Protein: HNH nuclease domain-containing protein
Amino acid sequence: MFVTDLEPPPPGPTLTDTRPSGVFGLELDFATRDEQWLPDAELVDAAVGFDRLIAWASARQSAVLAEFARRGGDGSIRPVTAAVPAREWAADEIAMALTVSPGSARVRLAVAARLDGALRGTREVLEAGRICPSRARLIADRVALLPDAVATVVQDRVLPKAPGQTWAQLDAALRRAITAIDPEGAAERHRAARKERRVDVFAQDDGMATLWARMTAPDAAASFEWLTRLARGMGADDDRSLDQRRADLLAAALTGKLVIRDPTADPVVTAPVSPGKPLITVLVPYSVLTGFDDAPCEISGYGPIPAQLARDIAADAVWKRLLVDPVSGAVLDHGRSTYRPPAALADHVRARDVTCRHPRCRRAATTCELDHVTAWQDGGGTGEDNLAALCTAHHDLKEQPGWRVVLHPDRSVEWTTPTGHTYLTAPYDHRV
Structure:
């Protein structure tokens, strides 16, 4: 008797999910020896495989550096103690061996030691090839000034989602976790950092320069928002890019040349630009407003801020109500009574999405376009269930041949690339 209804065996490991190792490196090398014959999807998988191999090698090197750093000054395998001093020349040795400066070598040894101790979980995820070296270094940098116990708690909070996040997304998650776990320290660090606000200029090539400013997050976000609004309001006849308009507007404002002209007046009326209060979205739990706790708050498109800073902003702000599901963290309702339904709907979608819904983009939804996920001409409606915030670049990408975007009922957005790979962006979790 022949059995014909047996299910096929599950697929074996691929270049994207095999645990990296030295043997995996050989397999990867063999699989890509004739890369010109590989289909597009396998080239992408191979690129992921090499990224995982790099992460594994970085973790193994970190373990070696940590072992080297903790040995006694005489080179013995005894751990460093009060009786067995550390090697004073360790950084110099590593600097010469790796062709880096002594300062860089000291930092690498310090990071390796932290990854071998309080941040051991980060090194394990790195060794498994699930995060890249730059993101492991980011975790170490963000918690560098925190006590080991607090650093470990922050690490454990962000690691589960870290493999699916970009550097910027992980950075925001780290800042949010630090603010949540150590609110008093976050407020103190903000007060100290605020004293360092300044403006500087750096010369560049070809007659150009960079004007650099360090200021509070609300001031920076509001400044950029108004530059963007003014730039977009300059009309379709202006052939400059949005970036060029922002730069020119900033220069004109700071040199006293930025004015508003009313060509309909007789004579033409000219007045300095005074746009009033900028619009920035600040997510603040009700418990913070009432002073019940100091949970972290957030500026849309920037990231977490301390509770006290959010309360300061709230004292001089126009408020809009958001009803948030306490279980899922999703926006259920955006209270508004002064605008027509289309404006309320736009506000609701932007409040729901917070940022561009491309999986790797953090552009604030307030500066994004609202896209009909299913095109209007294809029967898509203008409703919350068919609208998503997309920045201009990713709105254009969505319309390119081979790309497919689906907005699911739970408001997650699924992107499918021309090679058939899929990426999911979950709806923003408004819970702290």
Q: What stands out?
A: The chain has three domains: 22-181, 228-279, 320-425. Residues 320-425 form one domain. The first strand starts at residue 198 and ends at 203.
